[in-house]
Design goal:
The protein has 14 helices and two strands, in the order ααββαααααααααααα. The protein is an all-alpha fold.
Length: 328
């Protein structure tokens, strides 16, 4: 007899695949929200950005059926609705961030964070990860791949630790992400939009915090698993803040964006990022049972490796003869 999480995983994948496929075939996706290219885009043609609206309801329904966590499902569902309204009509930046902070605070309290300082730090961390995922959703297959690898690592680690609810919730996200990738891998026929990327970032932070609270992993685990996004987005936004730029404005200064502008195809970038995501997830899972000294050494090695990658991308951006679309 199949385990229930396998059945729900298959159902989420199938219904998400059907919703995405039918909406694209019938042309319905084009009436909901479309990403029109501008000077900050990596694409030259309009593409529907409603993948999240078509995928996330099935992810959340599956998670609700498996885990019964109505609170987390409800908070993520509210983010889907708010973010789709932003995709469709455009909402003030202050209103969006206020909603993110409020929902992040409620989520931090729900997973059991105690103390004023603890709640404040957890709220800020969740809100940051919520927006971080959105910042990195700009190239074919990138955000969907990060969701599949990241939540897949969550599911494996949580199952090993006996934290069944976190594992089951994560499996539902993986099912939706894989269905989305069928239409988002290069050449992309649909994007997540804020409704998908914002809610995925929120769940990555909340489930990562929940797994830590439940003892399924150490605090560093979610950061290493999602480090391909965390490092790129954080370094880029810190640099922009130091230059006193408006960090909330769209731009093309992330590392992955620079590589595409330097001549990398979306497919090449996605495959390279997948290799990095697999390495991060695999090493994070392997480290869970390692001695503290080995964990510390490996994390330092990863930090040094990312430092080298940042320098390499910067040099390629500054000196590469194939760079296009801007100069350092």
């Amino acid at each position: 007899m199949l385990r229930p999480e396998i059945v729900w995983f298959a159902a989420v994948f199938a219904f998400s695949l059907l919703a995405l496929g039918v909406s694209l075939r019938r042309g319905w996706a084009w009436y909901l929200a479309v990403d029109v290219p501008n000077d900050r885009s990596l694409h030259s043609l309009p593409v529907p950005r409603v993948g999240g609206v078509l995928m996330m309801p099935w992810v959340l329904l599956g998670a609700l059926g498996l885990t019964g966590n109505a609170m987390l499902v409800g908070l993520a569902g509210m983010l889907v609705i708010i973010s789709f309204a932003d995709d469709r009509f455009g909402l003030p930046v202050a209103l969006r961030f206020l909603a993110h902070l409020l929902l992040s605070g409620l989520a931090a309290a729900e997973v059991g964070v105690v103390g004023v300082l603890g709640l404040l730090l957890a709220t800020l961390a969740i809100a940051w990860m919520t927006n971080l995922f959105n910042f990195m959703d700009g190239s074919d297959g990138l955000a969907g791949g990060m969701a599949a690898f990241g939540f897949g690592a969550y599911a494996i680690a949580a199952f090993q630790a006996g934290d069944l609810p976190t594992a089951q919730f994560s499996m539902c996200v993986v099912g939706g992400a894989l269905a989305f990738l069928a239409f988002n891998f290069s050449p992309a026929r649909i994007f997540l939009g804020d409704a998908g990327s914002i809610s995925l970032g929120f769940l990555a932070a909340v489930l990562g915090l929940e797994g830590w609270q439940m003892g399924a992993w150490n605090a560093w685990f979610p950061f290493l698993v999602f480090s391909p996004f965390v490092v790129d987005a954080s370094v880029t936004l810190i640099r922009r803040a130091l230059r006193r730029e408006r960090v909330w404005r769209a731009h093309r200064e992330h590392g992955y964006q620079k590589l595409v502008q330097c001549g990398w195809s979306h497919r090449k970038l996605a495959l390279a990022e997948y290799a990095l995501m697999l390495a991060c997830s695999g090493s994070a899972l392997a480290l869970l049972r390692a001695e503290h000294g080995i964990q510390a050494f490996t994390l330092v090695a990863w930090a040094a490796g990312y430092g080298g990658l940042i320098v390499w991308v910067d040099r390629k951006w500054k000196y590469g003869a194939m760079c296009r679309g801007g100069q350092a």
